[in-house]
Amino acid sequence: MAEPAYTVASDSETTGEEKSSSAFPEIAIGIDIGTSQCSVAVWNGSQVELLKNTRNQKLMRSYVTFKDDIPSGGTLDIGVRPFIAALVNNVWRSTTPEEVLAIFLVELRVMAESQLKRPIRNVVLSIPVSFSRFQLTRIERACAMAGLHVLRLMPEPTAVALLYAQQQQQMIHDNMGSGSEKIALIFNMGAGYCDAAVTATAGGVSQIKALAGIATGGEDFLQNMMRHLLPNFDNLFSSRGINEIKSMGLLR
User: Fold this and answer.
1) Segment Disordered: which positions (predicted)?
2) Would you say 27 and 44 are in contact if contact means Cβ atoms under 8 Å apart?
3) CB-count burial class (<10 Å; 0-12, 13-18, 19+) for 109
4) Structural domain tally of the chain?
5) Same domain for 165 and 229
6) Is residue 247 part of a domain?
7) 237 and 148 part of one domain
């Protein structure tokens, strides 16, 4: 699987008349929703800037909790379970993964709008390489429910390749590097997915030569390690005098 070439815009290309055409120029945010953590970023004209939440965090946990009848930012699992159930006022209520993801995306959009002080309607999302067309469609549907227009669903290694191309371009501008083609291996392992790509970068243009990914990540390694250690579970924690839940937490 190969991706087309991407060009990193220069500063002059991002500071044209379109910036002064209205009081609130239309911009897009980038969202990376991982299995365990997520982040929101914006291009500020010279580099990618990560936005912070109200707790001054750039990395946020990927979950939505339901308390009474007001949901707020269990774990997102797109395309795996048909629904997610929550106990609301002693009544079980089911909802689709798209609805849960939409709630989460609304929180991220509001956070971005608060910091950037302008309405946000466009988004670029990074996705695992192994996502199916069915999963991508459900993500697009969740974005629509959250009032976001998807400009692109970008494989995560492609996003890294763009950043690498921008860094190489800056080095050339600062006379610290050459414009010759550079081949790089990009490896990205998250909690739930693992992606790899081979890129060729020259003159601010990055081209994906090869792209692959599997639905295996750090959480899978963690679970396998726990299964390996569980036969000795009692020996590991019997002397600590703590309950089983805390013991499992220590084991993780």
Assistant:
1) 1-21
2) no
3) buried
4) 2
5) no
6) yes
7) no
One-letter amino acid for residue 189 of the chain: M
pLDDT tens digit string along 1-13? Answer: 555 444 333 333 3
Under 8 Å between Cβ of 103 and 71:
yes
* Whole-number pLDDT of residue 226: 79
CATH number of the CATH domain containing 58: 3.30.420.40
pLDDT for 117: 92
183 domain residue, yes or no: no
Backbone angles phi, psi at 103, to 5 degrees: -60, -45
Residue 189: inside a domain:
no
Segments of the chain with pLDDT less than 50: 4-21, 72-83
**If you ran DSSP here, which 8-state letter would residue 3 be given?**
P
Question: Does residue 36 sit in the same domain as residue 125?
Answer: yes
136 found inside a domain: yes
pTM of the model: 0.70
Sign of CA dihedral 240, 243, 246, 251: positive
Select from 176, 210, 234 the last residue of a domain. 176
Give the strand pairing for 205-214 and 65-67: unpaired
- Contact predicate 150/140, CB 8 Å: yes
Angle at 247 between CA 242 and CA 252, to 5 degrees: 155
**234 vs 89: CA distance, rounded Å:** 38
Which residue range(s) make up the domain with 69? 9-176
Count CA within 13 A, CB hemisphere, residue 45: 5
According to the model, what pLDDT value does residue 209 have? 93
